[in-house]
Design a protein that fits this description.
The chain has 414 residues and is α+β, with helices and mostly antiparallel strands. It has 13 helices and 14 strands. The chain has helices spanning 3-16, 18-54, 86-100, 136-139, 152-156, 166-173, 216-223, 242-257, 274-315, 317-325, 330-367, 377-403, 407-411; strands at 60-65, 72-73, 76-77, 103-114, 116-118, 121-122, 127-132, 144-147, 161-164, 182-185, 188-196, 211-215, 231-235, 267-271. The strands form 2 sheets. Strands 1, 4, 5, 6, 7, 8, 9, 10, 11, 12, 13 and 14 form a 12-stranded mixed sheet that branches. Helix 2 (18-54) packs antiparallel against helix 9. It is elongated.
Length: 414
C-alpha cells in the first residue's frame, strides 16, 4: 500500500467517524489559534509602530529638557537643570540649519488639559495646545487633511490661527466644514486654518488627535508670564551617519547651554526611531513567550490526540487483523495510522490558522487603531510544520502498537 492509498484510507476512516474527527481537529485548532493568534497580534503591532516612525527618518531627533522626575541617587536628589528657553532653542535652530542644511522645528507645550469651545459646543478638558512653527508638522509625521499649514505671515505676525487634531474637529463641528470657523481656547479666539489627518497612538488611544497647534509666538503670548519649555526637533537627511548627526547636535547644544567639560548634559536627546527599536526588542521576548504558550497548548492537544488514536486502534483491532491476514506488513499498518493522525492535525491546523489570523488582527487593531491587516506567512508555515510534528508525535505510539498486534488474536477480538 503506497502513501496515496494510506492517505485515502485515512480520509475514509475520518469520514466514518466525523464527530470524533471534528472534536480532535478542534483541539488542534485551538492550539494553533493560540500560537498563530499571539504571533500575528505581535507582528501587527510591530508593523504599526514601524509605520508610525517610517516617515521621520533615522536622522530625526528631539532635543528636550532633562527631566529627572525627582529620582534619587545615593539618598540624594539628582541635580535639576533649567529648562530650554526660547533664546537657546532659536539659537540652536539658526546655527544647526546653517551648519548642516537641516530642517529644525521648534515647539512648546502651552497647555495639557484645555477645554475648547465653538458656539454652544465644548470639548472635554483634555485637549493639548502646542505652540510650533511651520516645520513642526512634516518633521513629526503629521499630515494635513483639510486646509493648510502655517504660513510665514501667520508666524511673523503672531496671528490667532489654529490647526486642529482630528478628534477635536470631529467633536466641535460634527461633519461640518471647520475651516475659517472661530473657536475659543484659553480666553482667546482663533480661526481654524487646517485639520490634521487621523494619527492615533499605540494602545488604541487618540492622544495625537486631541491636539491644537498654534503659531510659536502666539503660544508664547497665551502663556503670558509663564515660562515655556521648548523642544527642538531636527532632521539632517543629507548626512548618512545618524550617530554623527546626533553627536554634532549634542556638542552645539552643550555650547549654547554652557555645560562645563566633563559634566553631564543638561538636556536629553531622543532619536525618533528609539521607541520603534525599543519595541522591536520587547516584541522579540513577546514572540518567545507567545511561542511558548502556543507550544504548551499544542502539547495538551497532542496528548488528547494520542489518547483518541489509542481508542481508534482498539476499536479497529479486527480491521487490523483482517489487513494483516491479507498480507499487510507492520510498516503499512504503522504508516496508515501515522498518516491518519497527521491528516487530522493538518485539518485542525488549517482551521487554527484562519482563526489565529482573525483573532490576532483583532487584537492588534484593538491595541493600535491604525494597524493594518497582517498575514504572517512565516508563522503560518511554522504552524503547518508544527501540525505535522504534533501528528507524528501523537500518532507514532498508537501506530507502533497497531503494527505489533498479532493477526490471529486481532481476528478473535470482540
Amino acid at each position: 500500500m503506497n502513501i496515496k492509498e494510506n492517505v485515502n484510507e485515512g480520509l475514509r476512516s475520518i469520514q466514518a467517524n466525523v464527530l470524533r474527527t471534528v472534536l480532535t481537529a478542534l483541539i488542534i485548532a485551538i492550539g494553533i489559534t493560540s500560537l498563530v493568534g499571539i504571533l500575528t497580534a505581535i507582528e501587527g503591532i510591530q508593523n504599526s509602530v514601524n509605520s508610525s516612525f517610517a516617515d521621520l527618518g533615522a536622522n530625526t531627533f528631539t532635543v528636550r529638557n532633562y527631566n529627572d522626575r525627582g529620582r534619587r541617587s545615593g539618598g540624594r536628589s539628582r541635580k535639576q537643570y533649567p529648562p530650554i528657553n526660547y533664546r537657546q532653542a532659536t539659537t540652536f535652530a539658526e546655527q544647526y540649519r546653517q551648519g548642516y542644511d537641516a530642517t529644525v522645528a521648534l515647539s512648546a507645550p502651552v497647555g495639557g488639559a484645555i477645554q475648547v469651545k465653538y458656539l454652544s459646543k465644548k470639548t472635554n478638558p483634555n485637549v493639548s495646545v502646542v505652540a510650533a512653527d511651520d516645520a513642526y508638522l512634516p518633521i513629526n509625521g503629521y499630515k494635513i487633511d483639510l486646509g493648510r499649514n502655517f504660513s510665514r505671515t501667520d508666524l511673523e505676525k503672531s496671528l490667532n490661527v489654529a490647526i486642529l487634531g482630528q478628534e477635536v474637529a470631529r467633536n466641535l463641528f460634527e461633519g461640518r466644514d471647520p475651516l475659517s470657523r472661530q473657536i475659543t481656547l484659553m480666553g482667546a479666539r482663533f480661526t481654524v486654518i487646517g485639520v490634521l489627518e487621523k494619527k492615533g497612538s499605540l494602545g488604541g488611544g487618540t492622544g495625537s488627535d486631541r491636539i491644537i497647534i498654534v503659531p510659536l509666538e502666539t503660544g508664547r503670548g497665551l502663556a503670558a508670564n509663564r515660562a515655556l519649555t521648548f523642544d527642538i526637533t531636527a532632521s539632517a537627511p543629507a548626512i548618512q551617519d545618524a550617530e554623527y548627526v546626533i553627536e554634532e547636535a549634542r556638542g552645539l547644544m552643550r555650547r549654547i547651554r554652557s555645560d562645563n567639560l566633563g559634566t553631564p548634559d543638561s538636556f536629553e536627546i531622543q532619536r525618533a526611531d528609539a521607541l520603534a527599536k525599543d519595541f522591536e526588542n520587547i516584541s522579540g521576548y513577546l514572540r518567545m513567550g507567545g511561542f511558548g504558550i502556543g507550544i504548551i497548548t499544542l502539547l495538551g492537544a497532542a496528548i488528547a490526540l494520542m489518547n483518541i488514536m489509542m481508542v481508534s486502534v482498539t476499536e479497529r483491532t479486527r480491521e487490523i487483523g483482517i489487513r494483516k491476514s491479507l498480507g499487510a506488513t507492520p510498516r503499512v499498518i504503522r504508516l496508515q495510522f501515522l498518516i491518519e493522525a497527521i491528516v487530522i492535525c493538518i485539518l485542525g491546523g488549517l482551521g487554527g490558522l484562519l482563526f489565529g489570523l482573525l483573532i490576532g488582527n483583532l487584537i492588534s487593531n484593538a491595541i493600535s487603531a491604525d494597524s493594518s491587516f497582517v498575514v504572517p506567512w512565516l508563522w503560518m508555515i511554522m504552524g503547518i510544520v508544527v501540525c505535522v510534528f504534533v501528528g507524528v508525535v501523537s500518532g507514532i505510539y498508537p501506530a507502533i502498537k497497531a503494527s505489533r498486534l498479532d493477526p490471529i488474536e486481532a481476528l478473535r477480538y470482540e
